Amino acid sequence: MIKNKVLNKKKLPLYSLLISVIIVILATISAPAQAKTAYISDDIRVAMRSGASNGHRIIKFLNSGVAFKVLDTSDDEKYVEIELSDGKTGWVATENIMDVPSARDRLLVANNKLSKVRQKNKDLENTIAKLIAETKELKSEKKVLQDERADLSNSLDDLKITAANPLALSKKNRQLKKELSIAEATVTKLDRDNKQLRSNAAQDWFLIGGGVSMGSLIIGLILTRINWTRKRESWGDSY
C-alpha cells in the first residue's frame, strides 16, 4: 500500500507535465498565424490573382514597393495570400515579394531623415551662435559689475577706516571747511580785482578820449592861427 502511494506521487508530476505540453500544442495549432508585413520587389509590377496559380484571374497589378500583410502561404510555397491597405485580398508569387521596403522608398525615407537632420543642425548652429553672443554680453556685464564691485569695495574700505577713527574724521572735516573758506576768499578777491580792473579800464578810456579831444582842439587852433598869419602877410605884400 505504501509503495503504491509513493508510485502514485511520482506519476503525478509527469502526468501534469504531459497535460501542460498537450495544452500548449493545442493552443499553438488553434491560434491563427500572425500576419507579417512584406513588400513588392523593386522595379516590377506584380499581378495579384484570385488564387494560388497563374491560371487564376488577375485582380490588379501592384507597383514595386507596395506594402501588404501576408495572410497565408500555398502548399508548394510558391504563392502567398496578401491583404492590401484598402482591405482587398489576393495571391502573388513568392519570388516577387521581399521583407524590406523598396530601395526607392528607403532612399526617400533616408533623404527625409537627412533633411530633418540638416535642419536640426542649422537650428543648433543658430542656437549656438545666440548662446555665444549672450555669453559675450554676459562676460561684458560681469566685467562692469566686477569694476563696480571693486569701486564699492574701495569706498567701503575708506568708510570703514573713517568710521573707525572719529578724530581723523573730525580733523578731515575741519580741513575741508578751512579749504572751502580759503577758496571762497579767493573767489571774493578775484571778483573784487575784476571789478577794479573794469573801473580802471573805464577811466583809462575816459582819459584817452579826453586827451584825443584836447589834442584835436589844439591842432584846430594851430591850423586856424597859421591861416590868419598867411593872410596878413599877403595883405602886407599888396601895399
Global structural class: alpha+beta
For the report, how would you describe the main beta sheet?
A: 5 strands, antiparallel
Strands ordered across the widest β-sheet? 6-5-4-1-7
Oligomeric status of the shown chains? single chain
Task: Output the radius of gyration.
Answer: 62 Å
How would you summarize what this structure contains?
The protein is of the alpha+beta class and 239 residues long. It is built from three helices and seven strands; from the N terminus they run αβββββββαα.
Question: What is this structure's SSE topology?
Answer:
Blueprint: H1 2-30, E1 36-40, E2 46-49, E3 58-62, E4 67-73, E5 79-83, E6 89-93, E7 97-98, H2 103-164, H3 166-238
Antiparallel strand pairs: 1-4, 1-7, 2-3, 4-5, 5-6
Please give a structural write-up:
- 69% of the residues lie in helices and 14% in strands.
- With 239 residues, it is of the alpha+beta class.
- The protein folds into 3 domains: 1-31; 34-101, SH3 type barrels, CATH 2.30.30.40; 102-170.
- The strands form 2 sheets. The protein has a 5-stranded antiparallel sheet, with no helix packed on it.
- A hairpin with a 5-residue loop joins strand 5 and strand 6 (89-93).
- The protein starts with a helix and ends with a helix.
- Mean pLDDT is 76; it is low at 1-12 and 27-33.
